Amino acid sequence: MKALKTSILAVVFCTFSMGAAAQQNWPEAIAIPPGFEAEGIERGRGHEFFVGAFSFSSVFGEPFFGIPYELSESAGAIYKGNLRTGEGAILAPPTGKPVSGLSYDRRTDYLYAATGFADLVNGSFTEQGVIVYDASFGDVIAEIPFGDGIVINDVLVTRRAVYFTDSINPNLWKLPLEKGGRLPSTPIAEMIPMPGFEMVDGFNANGLVGKFDGKQLVIVNIATGVLYLVDTATGEASPLEIEGAEQLFVDGDGLYLRGRTLYIVQNFSDKIAVVQLSGDLIRGEFIKNIPGEGEINPLDIPTSIIGFGNSLYALNTNFFDLILGGNPASVQADVVRLRK
After folding, report:
1. Tens digits of residue pLDDT in 247-276
2. Res 68: pLDDT
3. To 5 degrees, how large is the angle CA 54–CA 121–CA 203?
4. CATH architecture of the domain formed by 2-339
């Protein structure tokens, strides 16, 4: 038995090493087309990735920076790329409705894109919901409205439901799925109150991750930096007990969970925090930041990340170039590679 275990470990190590060696020649940065105001990134099949187009230029326009921006021409578009080659193309054309979070279901080949309009000046948030795409051809499978007065932000596909964060209300949204990830004939989103989730002024609940069974989710509050464990059956939210040099993750945006290792994008902080979670997800230990102190930092206001092999891929918005450059149509977002 000991010899068998040793052989298995050797095969696993060899496979990982070969994969890591192959990735050495992959692009360190992948440029998204100019004017594509990217916000969310998601893995697909194999080396595929998807990026959704938001509209920072209209949300953070004249009242914030004195420059009269309008709705981005790319708003709502979906870009599909390849991590290995760096190549890609527009999968789905603009809808005119900005897209934030994305989540992919390999069972159905569906891509779920959170969408809606936001006017920060007037506090108007309308036509919030999700668009479901065929991830191979870009066709719209369904458009499911949630309503107004909410901000649907991040998305997570689980075995029997798709979950969504609402950044301005202490609620979780659930879109039930049928067996095999199929959408019901009449898909309807359900609101789940989250008692225990502490709100402050501005945006709150942002990124979410969890196991595929969907029983518990981890959500970050972007304003306070608190990580919460949410029971999806009751909605009860409990702050995670974090040990180590850092315990709050202000600017926490996209999350990525690999096993029990949680990666937290801190957008305006230009870093990714690494936290090792307990098996029951109720506590964790801060391990390090990526990049480490003294290392070259390729991050430029990243919003979300994915992982592949020994690498993380962060989506840079290049936010200040976009907002202060005077010509959003010329600014390129990019996907940058960092080592785990």
Report:
1. 999 999 999 999 999 999 999 999 999 999
2. 60
3. 65
4. 6 Propeller (2.120)
Q: Parse the chain into domains and list their residue ranges.
A: 2-339
- Contact residues for 174 (Cβ-Cβ < 8 A; gap 6+): 161, 162, 163, 164, 189, 190, 191, 192, 232
Furthest-apart CA atoms within the chain: distance in Å: 70
pLDDT in tens, 308-332: 999 999 999 999 988 887 688 889 9
Q: Are strands 261-266 and 311-316 parallel, antiparallel or unpaired?
A: unpaired
Rounded Cα distance, 313 and 334, in Å: 10
**Average pLDDT in the 186-194 region?**
97
Q: Report the relative pairing of strands 216-221 and 205-210 from DSSP bridges.
A: antiparallel
Which of 14-23, 170-179, 238-247, 282-291 has the least mean pLDDT? Answer: 14-23
Q: What is the distance between the alpha carbons of residues 209 and 336, in angstroms, rounded to a whole number?
A: 21
**End-to-end C-alpha distance for the chain, whole angstroms:** 32
Residue 113 Cα distances to 41, 127, 284, 329, angstroms: 10, 13, 30, 22
DSSP 72: -
CB 129 within 8 A of CB 152: yes
Tokens 């990666």, located at residue: 263
In angstroms, the CA 306 to CA 207 distance is 12
Peptide bond before 184: cis, by omega within 30 degrees of 0? no
Task: Report residue 90 CA to chain centroid gap.
Answer: 19
Is the dihedral angle over the CA atoms 54, 156, 228, 128 positive or is it negative?
Answer: positive
Q: What's the chain's average pLDDT? A: 92
d(CA 57, CA 10): 51
Main-chain phi, psi angles of 260, to 5 degrees? -110, 10
